[in-house]
Design a protein that fits this description.
This is Alpha-galactosidase. It holds the Pfam family Melibiase. InterPro entries: Aldolase_TIM, Alpha-glycosidase_related, GH, Glyco_hydro_36. The radius of gyration is 28 Å and the shape is globular. Strands 6, 7, 8, 9, 11, 12, 14, 15, 18 and 19 form a 10-stranded antiparallel beta sheet that branches. It is of the alpha+beta class. It starts with a strand and ends in an 8-residue tail after the last strand. It is about 15% helix and about 35% strand.
Amino acid sequence: MLERTRDATTLRYDIDEAQLSIHDANGVVFAGSPGVVLDGELVTPDGSEARSADATLDDSTPAVVHRCRRDGGEPVELRLELDTHPSGVVVTMELENESETAVTVDSFRIAGGNVEFGSDARVYRHGYQSWTPTGALPVGERFPPENEDAAPMMYDLATDGETRTSNYVTAVADGSRSLTLGFLDHDRYVTRFDIADDSTGVSGVTAVCPADGYRLARGETLTSSPLLADASRTVSDALAAWASAVGERMDARVPETVPTGWCSWYHYFTDVSEADVRENAEGLNEWGIPVALVQVDDGYTTAIGDWRSVNDDFSDMGALAADIESAGYTPGIWLAPFHVAADSAVATEHPEWLIADEDGPVGAGFRSGEYLYGLDATHPEVQTWLRETFHTVVHEWGYDYLKLDFLFAAALPGDYHDETATRADAYRTGLSIIRDVAGDETFILGCGAPIGPSVGIVDAMRIGPDVDPVWETPGESDSQPALKNAVRNTLNRQFTHRRLWLNDPDCQLVRTTTDLTDAERRAFAAVVALTGGLNVFSDAIEEIDDAGRNLLERTLPPARTGDVVGVGSEEFPDRLVCDHPFGDGATIAAFNWTDEPATVSVSPEEVGVSSPVAWDAFEERAVSLDGAGIERTLAPHDALLVHLSEPTDRPGVTGTRDALTGGSGAIRSTSWDDGTLTIERADAPPVEALVSVPEGWSFDGEDLAGGEDGTRIFAVELEAAVTELTFSPPSELD
């Protein structure tokens, strides 16, 4: 018996029975068999030919080697290694081919047929790429199926499309028990979990590490991605720990500064022109909103794939980038580097560049009346084309911000020019070439991208579907453009922010000509501000009214990060908490994601404080709590946003009047010294601080409201980088 334990999670391997089991403090939560699929045949060890990886076989042995035989009698060796990890316990498999000929490795797998979660359990399903729906559903429930045209763009084509799958990581929770499983390395494999469940519970989970038909030569070895198991933490904490581990192993790129700015897509779509971009850059300048980016989206090329061939609405992409930069903004541009339309010059002149199988080019979806395909990034000529394309875009045209879309197209299952390449190999080869040409200083946003294999190359990742100017479109799948679908993924993937990259929740839309309600615009503004990801809006500047401008301004600067409460237990978590870096306080957003009015409440105890007074950010007024919380009846898809702080015997900062984050991102620090409160503003525009002043203290400022205990809230404009406020203590007034 091999055994490893970390915290309350134990991993055991019964060598004689060739059975792997995971235990929590209450017993077994998972039991299954390791194996490998070779040439379509599942090969599993039976324990009869097992030996230690070292000299002896006992409880301290780090690994065991099974000599396995295929139906034809040809031997292979499967090595299992158990280890501990700061986030749980880990099992890794290694295959050595001892047969006389090469074998085709389809996948490593651990099939669990004994999973201890019943009818009340929820399964956290993590999507394959940016747009694939992600969240926790009750056992037996499924996200709606994709339509045939969109399916290649939304889910992993290596799966059957029927089995419930979760890519890279998954979790099951039932009351106080939970199990989170996640692969740790994603540079070679597009990993997944196949989950069997119905309304009675989960009957099986199979961890699959696909090798994509890799030909393993005689004497060669192939190692799986390590599988991490965590039955000690809550699902939310375990997901965060998994992401931290993956980010560390794969050298995640996490820029300190989050991009903010304007994008052309959701107003102009493909009808954008050079004149439109210039007009909006000018509008931003006149407005004076402190954002850094102007990004040209789809609509400037003659065809998808022909990125250096611009249409008649654009004359000189280099001159446009120079003018954007002269206006004070970073020039950004959209490309889908691996996605090509059937009628593009790239596809028609170089059909051998396309990912294909025995039936011809592999379909990469149908969009805007066009069939689309994927480029084989292992082909030397494609690699040359990528280098030339991005040298032009970055170094000749001058675009320093790249939004790379439909990236999944480089990881389609098929036959690659490099026969040794897995799908992840091919994808990372192409993306790494782009990074190498663009340089480390160029900001790369991934979109429509396989999540795991992108880590370490992109700076930011779209983590959900497009927002679209509607809440939802009845009858469409949960991966399709809709604000509802963007919100679901943004909340359920928040744990990847600043661990794998910067998250991109997609653009805010605040113009009144969309089908979004005031409540929906307000709620998404809270999500964007408090989660701390990219903050980009996509309305024509001239169509944004005063209320819309005010809402956008209040989402700046974004928080560094926020915590979503309820991941793993709800499809739509309804609490978002942003701690204040300048004191013992926080901002809480409580949401009504239902389609009917609902009453929500916020209590200071949720964040461990006992504020006598709070600030309702959307109603823009101070509220006396008088020992209770705040309760509001919200419209469908609306939010209650409250700033809270821990009371002290001296004045302190509760939040900010004009920033939805309550000051996170706007105020760097506060300090107190003998009656003087010093507030250091972050590198951000002036803000209005909300200062709580206990009873008896004297202060000359705008008195907004008070609590039952005599605490008052004052508004103070922070115009200087450092502001000092002087208060008279109660003893001086006696």
